Amino acid sequence: MAAHRLRPAQDLVERARPPLNGAHPADALPADRVDPPDVPFAVTWISPEARRAADGVLASGWVTTGHETELFESEIASRVGAEHAIAVSSCTAALELALRGLALPPGAAVLIPDVTFCGAAHAVLHAGLRPVLVDVDPRTATPTADTVARAAAACGRPRAMMVLHYAGAPTPVAELAEAAGLPLTRVVEDAAHALGTSVGDRSVGTLSRATCFSFYATKNLPIGEGGMVTTDDPELAVRIRRSRLNGMSADAWRRTQPGGRWRYTVEEAGLKANMTDVQAAIGRAQLGHFDDWQRRRHSLATRYDTLLATIPGIRPLDVPTPGNHARHLYVVRVLAEYGTGRDELVDTLSKRGIGTSVHFIPLHHLPFFRRNALKPLGGLPGADALFPQLLSLPLHPFLTERVVDRVCAELALLARERPAGSPFHTGRTAEAHRAMTGRYVEEP
Description:
The protein has a seven-stranded mixed beta sheet with strand order 3-11-10-7-6-4-5, with helices on both faces. It has a three-stranded antiparallel beta sheet with strand order 9-8-13, with no helix packed on it. It has a three-stranded antiparallel beta sheet with strand order 12-14-15, covered by helices on one side. It is α/β, with parallel strands linked by helices. The longest helix has 19 residues, at 290-308. The chain contains 15 helices and 15 strands. The relative contact order is 0.16. Strand 4, helix 4 (118-126) and strand 5 (130-134) form a beta-alpha-beta unit. The chain has helices at residues 48-60, 67-80, 91-101, 118-126, 145-155, 173-180, 234-243, 252-255, 277-287, 290-308, 342-351, 367-372, 381-386, 401-413, 429-437; strands at residues 6-8, 42-44, 84-88, 109-113, 130-134, 160-164, 187-191, 198-199, 202-203, 210-214, 227-231, 314-316, 323-324, 330-334, 390-393.
């Protein structure tokens, strides 16, 4: 269904990177580039500094968890304002380790949004707990206090909750915890999309017991793979740090340092889920570009907002609560008034060289979770209504303005016949398309 085109930026042969907040990356080429005929949904760019940093680690002879990982943890903790950060192999591993760290009884109920990545629900199950699906508001793709309360009633008494900052939008963590009857110490945040998000004036990474970030290839801070848990709880930090390395009381890095001891013990179950110094070195270098990348994402999202406002039936998601949006994804709803269904639109855009994606298939639509997750009475009508409408448009720091214009122009052109007097009724659609394509120029 989703035409999810992904392309490494290094493979965009000799094409310039667009300016980031007016400044080009270190290996940028001249700005008078010709945009590629295809528009990939996402682009991964590993900076020259990151490639040099990885080479340095490889040359050092120490490539597993070590000093670079400790520095990366410190830098992420400082950025989000948390006391502790623990680097792990993925956000999915981060979620599982954070849930294990809560020391809940086996099989305890954990509330989780129905519209989320399947890996988040796997993390609940692999931690020995039971996911309880929470319906979403179709306008935001996010649970509300009412849907949380309904899910909490369905399981009798939830012992914890996972809150997702969907697409990078701020989610009212404290309000949802209160609706679930849970303290914030029983909340784990899925912030895979949300490095750079704040709820009100508080940075995501400091709001709950534990917050889990992703550094997957398409994320706002791309490494390739990797994750991070932030927390202000020192005991939880120690527990997660130990659990990520098979539950061992001392990792190889510390055991081999001067004065280190070879003995260790294992007192609880663990995983092999540590981050390597190669990943950490890449992440530290990429972090130097992060603020420019975020400003670029916001600029492009604002352009989408402006252009899509003229197209009936294409509606961006509402933001659940005030705060700073990380702009990881630009998600719209394809409503009935657009005249073309989401799936047909995805196929047509793909044939025209524009990659899109869908985030996400609701968990209760997937056979495994239908068998292994608890649903509230009355089902999940919000997720069912939303799913056929969901569409994620290309958004990454290396899009040009004229490519955003092209995407919006295609959406305008593909709108079905409108009643007389509509801005896009037959006879004006082509005119509107030409008007939009006339904007295919870089802005200063």
